[in-house]
Specification:
The chain has 92 residues and is an all-alpha fold. The chain has four helices and no strands. It has one domain.
């Protein structure tokens, strides 16, 4: 028996949000791990850069989780809003 469209949408959104939360937590953990490793090595810059990348990814995932379904359906509009918010000096 098929579910109502609203029930499928709610299940999908719950799963989507759980997946985003898991990815954000993973990136935050990797950033912490890289920072700890950078204190134990003679050449910490590479690990510090890696930590910054993971921190930035975690921040971007939060931004993605705030996007509405309309923004996800219109990728050009969503991308331009995201680009203006996160890269203000980038030319149009």
């Amino acid at each position: 028996m098929a579910k109502a469209p609203d029930a499928q949408t709610e299940d999908f959104l719950r799963g989507w949000n759980a997946a985003l939360e898991a990815a954000r937590a993973w990136h935050e953990a990797k950033a912490k791990q890289a920072m700890v490793l950078s204190t134990r090595t003679r050449f910490p810059k590479n690990l510090e850069r890696e930590a910054e990348v993971h921190k930035r990814c975690a921040e971007l995932i939060v931004t993605l989780s705030r996007m509405t379904s309309e923004e996800l359906v219109q990728p050009d509009v969503a991308f331009n809003q995201f680009r203006r918010a996160n890269f203000p000096r980038m030319p149009p």
